[in-house]
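subagent[fold] <- orchestrator: predict structure for attached chain, return tokens only, no commentary.
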Amino acid sequence: MGPSKTKTVTESLDELSKKLENTITKDCLNSIVAKLKDELQADIHRENEEIVHSLKGRINSLESENEDLREKVTILEQRVTDSEEFISDLGQQHNDLEQHGRKNSIRINGLPDHSERESVEDCVSMIVDFVNNRLKVPLRSDDIDIAHRLGRFDNTKKRSVIVKFTNRQKKHEIIKARRTLKGSGFTVFEDLTKANQQRLKEAYHLDCVQNSYSIDGKLFVVLKNGRKRKLFHDTKLTAKYLENDANFGYRRN
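subagent[fold] -> orchestrator:
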């Protein structure tokens, strides 16, 4: 081999060596990829931590705001409850005052009702006659403070009559004598407020109740088990409540 040939081979080897130096091996490439992957994961982890930290801060802030709202709602609910109790108390006081104003009054059902032009004098005269002759209770026209029909005249039915006496004793005598009217078509009741009428009616329709009545505006029921209950404004009108002696101060031996 001549000198020129040897030089050519040497130059070729040098060029090949330089090319190999600039060539990335597979292991080197894997190493670079792994490094980039680690760096990327580290960046993602750092960003996630920042996001989580920010979200936790926001959640804590919202929880604090929510707690403040809960406290405000609780205060408002208590105010509503207090207002409802106050209104209920006012309503009961009004009902009691209205009932007190009717303490000398009764209602009579079944009296003849022939004319829409019936005068107060005619009404009073009819009541005096009814009480003296049907109830056998002595009554004069001056025992009556005022008397009048309820509602408009209707020739298909008899309107009730409200009678207010000048003294409560006369009312009591008539209420006591009304038992003689059973089956006669006439009825006599105390003049109750609308609220008390409704409450007494509601109590009467309970399965556990035998009878309901009032004395001087106070409401009572007699249960089918023989117990007598006085109904207060907060008495629950349920069989379970009314039949429980503990709710009314009774003690079993």
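orchestrator: received. Logging for downstream: The longest strand covers residues 209-215. Residues 192-252 form one domain.
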